[in-house]
Amino acid sequence: MVAPKYLKRYFKVQKDEMPAHFKITEKVPVSFDPDMQLEELRRIHGKEIEEYRKLRENLEVEAAEALAYKDTADRLTLFTQSFLELPKANPSLLDLKVEIVDRMLEKCHCCGWRCEINREAGEKGFCRLTDLSNYASEFLHMGEEPELVPSHTIFFTGCTFACVYCQNWDISTCPEAGTRIEPRKLAKLIDLRRMHGARNVNFVTPTPHAHTVLKIIREISVNTPVVWNSNMYHSQEIAEILEGVVDVYLGDFKYGNDVCAWKYSKIKNYLEVVQPNFEFAYKTAEVLLRHLVLPGHLECCTKPIAEWVAKNIPQIRFNLMFQYRPCYRAMEYPELGRHLTPEEEARAIEIVREAGIEDLLI
């Protein structure tokens, strides 16, 4: 495998040579009243995120200066350790983010559906989730991308999509299954997994659980990269909250048009939601993009996706995936009721290379 070109900061965090983004955010002091209106809390967040950006930039400059020395890695490790030993702010920017997302649940607009139901009162929208979060499993995953494994992967239940070919349909369609999450308890397990060799913590299908994910992260003691493993269908408001929390967006880009998105995943306004989210992720973190090639969908989906990525977010890791198999309800759609042919796989590679994708994983 050729080493990734565009996950350099992730590798530094993984080796404790840079602080994870949330470790920076928890050092930023803020002042707010939990009784404030949501818009006022967002106004404060918009102001204080600038302080986070300044602090992150200063850290990047200091890290760059270490490159002038032969013992760069040792200097970066000591520098990072010194930063991590600084006390957390109380309250911090991370606390403010938690408060904002909790308040968003009262008229939920965490994803592109914008159901605006009160999940705290037990109401359910498209994802069929209240404010309670469950996980189906957590373990050191060896089946993710080579640069991620071993990855401490936590599979949340429920989903904001309804993919007819979902390989994890038993998890995504049963939001009330699994183990109820206690943020502090799960955070301690994340600490333990990190000490046992996990290179990151990998939150799978986190969007409808953003409030819980933030509470878990707030309790994590170790320095570990945060991987947001999602369909990228979160709302703009959630995207803004995730700045300063997520280190790597492990994002699925499934469809090159809204017609296919609606037909196979029952998703509205797909490109209108997903493309800006990828662009914002590109500006604020690092991106490892996954595209699962669907049989018969090379020209309508693979090609426009590759061309858009090359034009708009070129410096990302692009994983071209051929793992599709007919699962769940796929056989109800004859065009999806088969595996890819060797010719389709070859054509997909040709499409992506012709588009000019620089950092390709196959």
List the helices and strands and how they pair.
Elements: H1 8-14, H2 21-25, H3 38-66, H4 72-84, H5 93-104, E1 134-141, E2 151-156, H6 169-172, E3 179-180, H7 183-195, E4 201-204, H8 210-219, E5 226-230, H9 236-242, E6 248-252, H10 258-265, H11 270-284, E7 286-292, H12 298-312, E8 317-321, H13 342-355, E9 359-361
Parallel strand pairs: 2-4, 4-5, 5-6, 6-7, 7-8, 8-9
Antiparallel strand pairs: 1-2, 1-3
Outline the structure in words:
This protein is α/β, with parallel strands linked by helices and 362 residues long. The protein has one domain: TIM Barrel (Alpha-Beta Barrel). The chain has helices spanning 8-14, 21-25, 38-66, 72-84, 93-104, 169-172, 183-195, 210-219, 236-242, 258-265, 270-284, 298-312, 342-355, and strands spanning 134-141, 151-156, 179-180, 201-204, 226-230, 248-252, 286-292, 317-321, 359-361. Helix 8 (210-219) links the parallel strand 4 (201-204) and strand 5. The protein starts with 7 loop residues before the first helix and ends with a strand.
Can you tag this structure with a few keywords?
362 residues, alpha/beta, TIM Barrel, nine-stranded mixed sheet, 13 helices, 9 strands
- The chain-level mean pLDDT equals 97
Name the CATH homologous superfamily: Aldolase class I
What is the domain tally?
A: 1
Biggest pleated sheet: 9 strands, mixed
**What overall form do the CA principal axes indicate?**
globular
The CATH architecture name reads Alpha-Beta Barrel
For the record, the CATH class is Alpha Beta
